[in-house]
Amino acid sequence: MRAGVVFLVLTIVVAGGAYPLVVTGIAQLVDPYAAGGSLLRCPNGTVVGSADIAQNLSAGTLGPSLFWARPSLTDYNTTLGADSPPGPTDPALKALLNETIAYLQGGEENRSPNAPLPYWWVAPSASSVDPDLTPGAVLVQVLRVANATGLSNATVLGLVNAHITQPPLPYVGVPFVNVLELDIALLALQGRC
């Protein structure tokens, strides 16, 4: 009995204390930004969120003046598990894409008539909190954001181009834009962050 209790206590100390401390220490040495949660801050130091988790900044009064992230089945709540996305005949699909539908009906899309929307802009990710969009899914929003902010199309386009991240190796992955980082830069450019 005594050996079992000693083994249990040692296991708890090692697995519950020593191991996490060692791994956290190594992570802090190797990549302190990621180990600290990849926090994104406004220029004034206010933490807005994490670069790894999408947030719905566009839900409030800033909505038209920010880039929209991918739709989320969980309303960007990381504590909820995502169900499978609704199919093409499911009425929930229309509810999920209300912002997209309103955007299309507003006639402010920066694309040719009858051109398809980028898939990443209208389809939720598997986790429902993916913070990234392809450049095409961000570029279709440039005209709307420029009109809502009063900035020139060239300024907004330059901001988008500056936030395109290329894959680490050619032909492995796709270029992407972290929408939260882009929105923070846009707000900072306007002095609102």
| Mean of pLDDT | 80
Major beta sheet, specifics? Answer: 3 strands, antiparallel
Radius of gyration: 21 Å
Helix content: 40-55%
Number of helices: 9
Main structural class: mainly alpha
SSE order in H/E notation? HHEEHHHEHHHEEH
Strand percent estimate: 5-15%
The unreliable regions are 108-112
State the separation between the terminal residues, measured CA to CA: 60 Å
Question: Largest beta sheet: what is the strand line-up?
Answer: 3-5-4
Describe what this molecule looks like in 3D:
It is a single chain. Helix content is 44%, strand content 7%. The protein contains nine helices and five strands. The strands form two sheets. The protein has a three-stranded antiparallel sheet. Strand 1 (39-41) and strand 2 (47-50) form a beta hairpin. The chain is globular. The relative contact order is 0.14. Residues 108-112 have low confidence and may be disordered.
